[in-house]
Design a protein that fits this description.
The chain is of the alpha/beta class. Helices cover 30% and strands 18% of the residues. The structure holds fructose -6-phosphate.
């Protein structure tokens, strides 16, 4: 696991964008795994800037998002579908048919999860997977538990995740379930980039780097990935 520590989020985002640029330049039809939440926002801003400046193109890029809430309309302001449109897809030259996000409203969620895994496999698996990390060490919505998960599945969100994300649900109830890629799906990515900023992530980062590889801190599995890079600010790296 490679660890890079930055004095501020802007420099961190520039390095993250450089890694995306390198991947897309080498392979214009790269398969990207994408995250939502606060952590990737500045990186997405920089990718939009580079796309508008003609430095990179997403015209042949294929994307798979990590997760989506269940029982929340796609058009809801808090859906990850809306998040991705507003923070990335709506501002770059990606083809809508190349964008994949789980359908959290699927009547048969097991079939939806299986189909999602099949689409990832058919695309040749993920070249570059972007991750944030929960304060409890979750990646995607793989919450701490007794076993590492495998493919895409439906999860009941933990109390800590509901507490952390309910700040966005000011006029509606936060969903309790989500569909998420499993740890197995994430680990199949050729390269993994995890972004963490702020002191609230310091314990999770300590456990990710120095703890045992354990499903009680799902991100610790990255210790066993051949090409995982952690991009941290000083606050998130404070306990290392
Ligand atoms: C989001 C996701 C989550 C977040 C994590 C951190 O698609 O999969 O694992 O990356 O909850 O969220 P932020 O970045 O908002 O602190």
């Amino acid at each position: 696991m490679q660890i890079k520590i930055f004095p501020n989020e802007t420099e961190l985002a520039l390095t993250a964008a450089d890694i995306f640029e390198e991947t897309i330049t080498k392979k214009p039809n790269a398969v990207l795994g994408l995250a939502t939440g606060a952590s990737p926002v500045l990186t997405y801003k920089e990718l939009i800037r580079r796309c508008k400046a003609g430095v990179i193109s997403f015209a042949d890029v294929i994307t798979f998002n990590l997760d989506e809430y269940c029982d929340l309309p796609r058009a809801d302001k808090n859906s990850y579908y809306t998040f991705m449109q507003e923070n990335l897809f709506g501002h770059i030259d990606i083809k809508p048919e190349n964008v994949h996000i789980e359908d959290g409203n699927a009547a048969d969620f097991e079939a939806e999860c299986k189909a999602y895994d099949a689409q990832i496999a058919a695309a040749g698996y993920i070249d570059l997977q972007l991750l944030g990390i929960g304060t409890n060490g979750h990646i995607g919505f793989n919450e701490p538990g007794d076993a590492f998960t495998d493919g895409t599945f439906r999860i009941r969100l933990s109390e800590s995740t509901i507490k952390a994300n309910s700040r966005y649900f000011t006029d509606s109830k936060m969903p309790e379930y989500a569909l998420t890629m499993g740890v197995g799906s994430i680990m199949k990515a050729k390269k993994i980039l995890l972004i963490a900023t702020g002191s609230a992530k310091a314990d999770a980062i300590y456990n990710t780097v120095n703890g045992p590889v354990s499903p009680h801190c799902p991100a610790s599995v990255l210790q066993t990935h051949p090409d995982a890079i952690l991009l941290l600010d000083e606050a998130a790296a404070a306990r290392l």
